[in-house]
Write a structure and sequence with these properties.
- This protein is an all-alpha fold.
- It has a single domain (about 20-280), classed as Ribonucleotide Reductase, subunit A.
- Helix content is about 75%, strand content about 0%.
- The protein is built from 15 helices and no strands.
- The chain has helices at about 5-10, 25-30, 35-45, 50-55, 65-90, 100-105, 110-125, 130-155, 160-185, 190-205, 210, 215-225, 230-240, 250-270, 275-280.
- Helix 3 runs antiparallel to helix 5 (about 65-90), helix 4 (about 50-55) packs antiparallel against helix 5 (about 65-90) and helix 8 (about 130-155) packs antiparallel against helix 9 (about 160-185).
Length: about 280
């Protein structure tokens, strides 16, 4: 992987281009109810990135110029991902409630508040905790990218597909920063590796589960990844993370997604979604 150039990243950063998209086509094509639910979860996750940055920008990470420069751009671009998805939802007849941001924020798990408290404390005690933050971020960016690609492959809304392609490209740039930072901080540092392993095994959960809720996470898992193609995409992402020094064991992504999908189907029954239907036809 090529070195990440933070100066070039800052110079080329910006919101997703929306003005050239065919919004009339988007309205005509519309969204399925399942797609609307998936996009609502994605939008809530993206627009709440500012809350995740609150946890990242603490302790030693707050004095690192590359980390602070990246996070300044990251939170802005992620906010625009959420706003762009909200525009799709609104144009296609599924506008978010006026209090959606507040509602999603108030619905966040108490677990996230507890984790944030411990995160701030650990970030102030040791610079090695930045390795945890960067590894965590790399996993989340890969997961988000896989989800966007899953929707892009199956939607009949060409405008949405084009938008998701653009969002995925930005997510790859974000992933590149997180991954290279994690790799640099884990290489040759057994204590950083142990700290990352402890944090992942004890606390890591799929991105968005806090503001999105367990039921919505289960729906996403069943709709997008409960198929051979979906599991293969997650396994590929795990393979990338396992290349990091000391993280060769990582398998939490497929495990949590499979468990979430199984629990959702047990509670509510099968999910009707294009990718799931296609997998059934291929089986």
């Amino acid at each position: 992987m090529a070195d990440f150039n933070i100066d070039r990243f800052v110079e080329l950063s910006g919101r997703i281009e929306l003005d050239d998209l065919d919004w009339e086509e988007c309205k005509r094509s519309g969204l399925t109810d399942a797609e609307a639910r998936v996009l609502r979860y994605m939008s809530d996750t993206e627009t709440h990135t500012i809350l995740y940055m609150r946890d990242l920008l603490a302790g030693y990470s707050a004095s690192d110029p590359e980390v602070t420069s990246f996070l300044s751009i990251w939170v802005y671009e992620e906010l625009w991902h959420g706003r762009a998805l909200d525009r799709v939802l609104t144009v296609a007849g599924h506008p978010p409630p006026a209090d959606q941001f507040t509602k999603a924020t108030n619905g966040a798990h108490m677990r996230e508040t507890i984790e944030a408290t411990f995160s701030h404390l650990a970030a102030s005690l040791t610079p090695r905790f930045i390795a945890v933050q960067m590894t965590w971020g790399a996993i989340n960016e890969l997961t988000a990218g896989a989800a966007y690609q899953a929707v892009e492959r199956t939607t009949k809304n060409a405008t949405l597909a084009k938008l998701l392609n653009r969002i995925t490209r930005q997510e790859r740039k974000h992933f590149s920063f997180y991954y290279q930072q994690a790799e640099q901080r884990l290489t040759g540092d057994i204590w950083a590796q142990r700290l990352v392993n402890l944090a992942l095994k004890r606390f890591w959960t799929v991105v968005g589960s806090g503001v999105g809720g367990d039921d919505n996470l289960g729906f996403i898992a069943a709709a997008l990844f409960d198929s051979p193609e979906g599991i293969a995409a997650l396994a590929e992402a795990e393979g990338v993370i396992r290349k990091l020094p000391g993280i060769e064991w990582f398998n939490l992504l497929t495990g949590q997604v499979r468990e979430s999908a199984a629990n959702y189907k047990l509670k509510y029954g099968p999910v009707a979604y294009p990718q799931a239907q296609l997998s059934a036809q291929l089986a």
